[in-house]
Design brief:
Largest sheet: 2 strands, antiparallel
Radius of gyration: 29 Å
Number of helices: 3
Shape: flat
Structural class: mainly alpha
Strand order of the largest sheet: 1-2
Number of strands: 2
Oligomer: single chain
Helix content: 40-55%
């Protein structure tokens, strides 16, 4: 009997999934059931009642920085691998296009 089929990724994934579901089910069987208390889900901070509010994170500045570094990385890689000689002026034109695209990052669209 050939058991190498058990090492194929789909079968191994299903075996791990079934084992983890079994372990999860066993944990639910042996867990201690908690009793609900009136203040369990109220917000609390430093001994004071805290008025909860929704926080919104802005990722715009992160994306601008990520795009900037991506563009610069590709530009440096491209210019570094360009052949020298008479076609070197193409690198300067490429750098001018890169500078124009980076200047678009700093325009405030809000």
């Amino acid at each position: 009997m050939d058991l190498s089929i058990l090492l194929s990724p789909p079968v191994a994934f299903l075996i791990c999934l079934l084992c983890s579901l079994g372990l999860y089910g066993f944990g639910r069987l042996v867990e201690e059931k908690g009793k609900p208390s009136p203040g369990k889900y109220e917000t609390y901070a430093c001994g004071e009642d805290f008025e909860g509010r929704k926080m919104e994170f802005g990722y715009r500045h992160f994306y601008v920085a990520a795009i900037f570094f991506t563009i610069m990385h590709v530009a440096v890689l491209t210019v570094a691998t360009m052949p020298g000689g008479a076609g070197a002026w193409k690198a300067l034109a490429y750098l001018a296009a890169i500078a124009a695209s980076i200047s678009c990052l700093y325009v405030d669209f809000d």
